[in-house]
């Protein structure tokens, strides 16, 4: 294989890795926003007393929900989001490693 073809192939692979990195960063930012929102909900639910009524939105309808169920749901959601962020972090590190290898290959 000629040098020009190998360079073109490596350059193309590098561009694909950059696009993958951008997509992964976008996913991470969305997860961070969800994490922030859910932490705010958790904080608000901590201020709710048992006498207060908690509603959950299902479609366009508000349905009465038990306070302990609401807290449990938010806590579960937080755990899920945190695990997804960890998974994305690993993915980002892998992509960065691959990018570094391709960058050296192109050089």
UniProtKB/TrEMBL annotation:
One term of GO molecular function: protein-folding chaperone binding
GO cellular component terms given for this protein: cytoplasm; prefoldin complex
Coiled coil in keyword set: yes
GO biological process entries: chaperone-mediated protein complex assembly; protein folding
Coiled coil regions, renumbered to chain: 14-48, 78-105
Highest taxon of source: Eukaryota
Pfam families referenced in this protein's UniProt entry, alphabetically: Prefoldin_2
Keyword tRNA-binding: no
Gene3D superfamilies noted in UniProt: 1.10.287.370
UniProtKB keywords: Chaperone, Coiled coil
Database matches in InterPro entries: PFD_beta-like, Prefoldin
Family per record: Belongs to the prefoldin subunit beta family.
Protein name: Prefoldin subunit 6
Species the sequence originates in: Agaricus bisporus var. burnettii (strain JB137-S8 / ATCC MYA-4627 / FGSC 10392)
């Amino acid at each position: 294989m000629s040098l020009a073809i190998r360079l073109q192939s490596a350059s193309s692979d590098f561009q694909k890795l950059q696009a993958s990195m951008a997509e992964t960063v976008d996913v991470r930012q969305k997860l961070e926003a969800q994490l922030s929102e859910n932490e705010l909900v958790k904080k608000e639910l901590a201020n709710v007393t048992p006498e207060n009524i908690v509603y959950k939105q299902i479609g366009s309808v508000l349905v009465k929900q038990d306070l302990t169920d609401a807290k449990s749901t938010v806590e579960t959601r937080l755990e899920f989001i945190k695990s997804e962020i960890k998974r994305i972090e690993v993915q980002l590190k892998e992509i960065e490693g691959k990018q570094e290898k391709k960058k050296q290959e192109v050089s």
